[in-house]
Design goal:
Blueprint (H helix, E strand, L loop, with lengths): L1 E2 L2 E2 H24 L4 H12 L23 E3 L7 E5 L6 E3 L12 E3 L4 E3 L14 E3 L21 E3 L21 E3 L21 E3 L8 E3 L10 E3 L6 E5 L1 H4 L1
The protein binds 2-acetamido-2-deoxy-beta-D-glucopyranose (9 copies).
The site of one 2-acetamido-2-deoxy-beta-D-glucopyranose has 7 residues, from loops.
């Protein structure tokens, strides 16, 4: 039988070849790893000025991204990074703004190194971030207001840096926050009353800063608060309660 000059067998063969082409095209698309996280990590590495223990030498193209030192990948999404753990490694340099491209990141632990410069506000793009621990570094500038956009944060540890400026009042939107450690910095201004919105808060450490004013009475709402540190601040010891004061 002939259909428009093709034999039926010919037609079936062409359909078969076309089918293979379509299927292989789709499997290539679905298995093509998204390179965004890899380029973000390579940009992070490029910013590092000192790596005396050589840990970032494993961040090279001959081994898989998910085998790089300190990198944990998603089990479901190929080449997407869910955790970056680079603590106590004597690393120096800035934290690259490209970190904000790691959109699957849930945990970022860079504590006890010598990271300097400012915390990139691109941190605020990490909507899945739960743990942010940058303590014991040499970070300067202010706490980026955009950190308040990481609505899943439950650990925010920035203690032991040289952060200045005020505690951003926007921090009050981080309602899942359980640990807020900002002690041993150079923070100024008052304690924002929005902290009284952090109903999950268990530890609030603000000591060894230049904070002034009074403790907002709304902290009394934080029923889960178990540790509170204000020492070495010039905070007044009494709680300001507008109903009592008026
Ligand atoms: C990779 O993922 C990002 C979001 O994380 C997306 O914007 C980008 O389009 C993706 N790239 C490819 C090639 O799929
Ligand atoms: C890449 O990293 C692996 C694992 O650390 C290491 O053995 C290898 O020498 C590195 N390759 C290059 C070119 O640095
Ligand atoms: C901090 O890192 C240094 C290595 O730079 C290590 O010797 C020390 O034990 C670490 N301290 C903590 C508290 O993790
Ligand atoms: C990653 O982030 C940087 C800085 O925020 C940006 O300039 C760049 O376009 C981003 N790259 C990708 C591949 O998304
Ligand atoms: C910071 O957040 C604002 C919105 O609050 C947004 O417009 C801006 O792009 C964010 N900056 C960065 C660097 O992500
Ligand atoms: C920072 O250093 C102090 C003093 O060594 C230590 O008690 C604390 O656990 C460290 N914190 C972090 C987040 O590294
Ligand atoms: C701390 O802040 C005060 C007042 O803003 C400033 O004079 C001082 O230089 C800062 N110290 C450090 C170590 O950044
Ligand atoms: C948090 O608390 C402040 C003052 O206590 C209040 O004005 C604000 O609406 C609350 N909500 C958020 C998301 O900060
Ligand atoms: C307070 O702590 C209790 C016991 O751990 C927990 O069940 C509850 O959900 C916490 N409340 C908030 C607002 O996180």
């Amino acid at each position: 039988m002939q259909i428009l000059g093709f034999t039926s067998a010919d037609f079936q063969f062409r359909c078969f070849i076309l089918g293979i082409a379509i299927v292989s095209c789709f499997t290539q698309v679905s298995s093509a790893a998204n390179e965004t996280d890899k380029s973000a990590l390579l940009a992070f590495k490029a910013g590092i000025t000192e790596d005396p223990l050589g840990v970032l030498s494993s961040w090279n193209n001959t081994i898989d991204l998910c085998q790089w030192y300190g990198v944990t990948c998603s089990r479901r999404h190929r080449n997407r990074v869910t955790a970056l753990n680079l603590y106590s490694l004597k690393l120096s340099g800035p934290i690259s703004p490209h970190i904000g491209n790691l959109s699957f990141l849930r945990e970022l632990r860079l504590y006890n190194n010598s990271f300097g410069h400012e915390i990139p506000p691109q941190i605020g793009q990490l909507r899945r971030l739960r743990i942010l621990i940058l303590g014991n570094n040499s970070l300067t500038g202010e706490i980026p207001r955009n950190t308040s956009r990481c609505l899943n944060l439950h650990h925010l540890v920035l203690a032991g840096n040289q952060l200045g400026g005020e505690v951003p009042p926007e921090i009050g939107s981080l309602v899942k926050l359980r640990y807020l450690h900002l002690r041993r910095n150079n923070l100024t201004g008052g304690v924002p009353s929005s902290i009284g919105n952090l109903s999950s808060l268990e530890q609030l450490y603000l000591s060894n800063n230049n904070l002034g004013g009074s403790l907002p009475w709304v902290l009394g709402r934080l029923t889960n608060l178990t540790s509170l540190a204000f020492g070495e601040n010039t905070l007044s010891a009494r709680w300001i309660n507008p109903y009592v004061d008026s």
